[in-house]
Amino acid sequence: MDDFPSMKAKALLAILTRDPLGYRIVRQRGSHRRLRAPGRPPVQFAWHDRETLAPGEVRAVLTRYVGLDRRAALDLL
Fold this sequence. Notes:
Elements: E1 7-8, H1 9-17, E2 24-29, E3 32-36, E4 43-45, E5 52-53, H2 55-65, H3 70-76
Antiparallel strand pairs: 1-5, 2-3, 3-4
């Protein structure tokens, strides 16, 4: 069982854009958004706002793509 919840893509995008992550959308084409933040790796967010993301997808975005450890990622949720 995964500790991460499922959530709407719009909610995950809100987590990425608020402090302490501070990502900003630098380019958008349709539902594909490129996000950048100072000192963090760039992320491509390619989900429709109303789409529900599975717990594994939420975990992958925060840990694999953003580079947070598991505990820090869970603290943001």
